């Protein structure tokens, strides 16, 4: 049985694509309101791991629980995706819809809330991310940083229990990175449970409760930001940090 006090439980997860082993025996438990930051080189399996949490990938071995429920089978996976928002590197807003329509769609369709409630919730979230005046714009009329703030607002509109971020600032021009990280920090401070894959070490240090360094599909090192960044134990972690800091 999955322990209830953990919102996300990853138990001995392995993942292969054909002959390629991408994840090897990964176990991570994330408590409610915890912010776990995952760092690691490109190709180390970070995205695959995140995708196993909401059922976008199926582990080859081991299992994942969300809020005590196994993440497998269509019914459970649909429920998990309702409760777990995901923000990707590339802004994945619906291009033919306005910003406010992007925010209203899933809450109306999936949560069955009224149009008025969806609108009010959407506008209040746009206010929160500083984009109330862009409600009627199309995504293409916004900067990358603004689109990513809309993507976060859209995820929040579903009132998720947890949010997953997969390198949310990697595709942004440098001057737009901070505005997205600021919104993420605010969301974390409000108590959202978050798993964040990022190369932004400042964010990891400041906002992360725990930092995990993944390389070659295994957790090489984990601890508080102070432990991982200031008292690094493993040579592989030291090498990686020397390259990104
Ligand atoms: P990261 O996010 O850390 O850069 P990924 O999880 O995206 O790493 O990828 C890890 C490895 O798995 C890479 O070698 C990648 O090419 C491979 N991979 C990812 N998804 C697939 C897939 N659907 N089919 C085959 N190989 C994949
Ligand atoms: Mg990735």
What does this structure look like?
This protein has nine helices and ten strands. It has 245 residues and is α/β, with parallel strands linked by helices. The chain has a domain at 6-91 and 160-242: Rossmann fold (3-Layer(aba) Sandwich). The protein has a six-stranded mixed β-sheet with strand order 6-7-8-3-9-10, sandwiched between helices. It is globular, with a radius of gyration of 18 Å. The structure holds adenosine-5'-diphosphate and magnesium ion (MG). Magnesium ion (MG) is lined by residues 46-47, 166-167. One of its GO terms (cellular component) is plasma membrane. Residues 8-241 form the ABC transporter domain. Keywords: Amino-acid transport, ATP-binding, Cell membrane, Membrane, Nucleotide-binding, Transport. This is ABC transporter domain-containing protein.
């Amino acid at each position: 049985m999955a322990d209830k006090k953990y919102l996300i439980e990853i138990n001995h997860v392995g993942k292969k694509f054909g002959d390629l082993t991408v994840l090897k025996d990964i176990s991570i438990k994330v408590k409610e309101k915890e912010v776990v930051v995952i760092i690691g080189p490109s190709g180390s399996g970070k995205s695959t791991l995140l995708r196993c949490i909401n059922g976008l990938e199926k582990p080859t071995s081991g299992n994942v629980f969300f809020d005590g429920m196994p993440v497998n089978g269509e019914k459970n996976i649909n429920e998990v995706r309702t409760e777990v928002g995901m923000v990707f590197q590339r802004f994945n807003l619906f291009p033919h819809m306005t910003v406010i329509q992007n925010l209203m769609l899933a809450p109306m369709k999936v949560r069955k809330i009224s149009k008025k409630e969806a609108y009010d919730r959407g506008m209040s979230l746009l206010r929160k991310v500083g984009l109330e005046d862009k409600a009627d714009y199309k995504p293409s009329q916004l900067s990358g940083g603004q689109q990513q703030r809309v993507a976060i607002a859209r995820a929040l509109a579903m009132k998720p229990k947890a949010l997953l971020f997969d390198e949310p600032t990697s595709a942004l021009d440098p001057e737009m990175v901070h505005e997205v990280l600021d919104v993420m920090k605010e969301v974390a401070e409000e108590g959202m449970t978050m798993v964040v894959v990022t190369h932004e070490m400042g964010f990891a240090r400041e906002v992360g409760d725990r930092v995990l360094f993944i390389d070659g599909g295994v957790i090489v090192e984990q601890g508080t930001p102070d432990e991982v960044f200031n008292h690094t134990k493993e040579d592989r972690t030291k090498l990686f940090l020397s390259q990104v800091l």
